[in-house]
Amino acid sequence: MSFLLSILRLPKVTRNIISVQYATQFKSSLDFKDFIIDKKKIKGTRQKIEIPVEEDVNKLLNYVCGLNIYKDGEDIKLKPDSEYPEWLWNIRIEKLQLSDLNPNTKQYWRFVRKQALKRKNEMQKFKKF
Length: 129
Known about the structure:
ribonucleoprotein, structural constituent of ribosome, Ribosomal_mL54, two-stranded antiparallel sheet, mitochondrion, Large ribosomal subunit protein mL54
């Protein structure tokens, strides 16, 4: 049986492992010097984007500056407070505190776990290896 494998140039099977009976050598026409890249070529030139800051006080009080996404459009004019929904003025803008939550809710325990993970990650920064 082994003489058939050598004639057919099939790999020998030994204990469910196929042994490869040939090896090839990689020949490259390129020199190693071709792979060295000049640092100046890698470092591209980045252009700093200048975003204009609105300094006109009247425009800041009457328009939503920077919300216009069109080239030819104008900024949106602010409406009186009475035209906006009531829930808009009740939105929480300060960070959520543990004392604000009820300990019998999932939100409380998720908050506790999240704070513990943040603290653990901060402590990992100072851990000596």
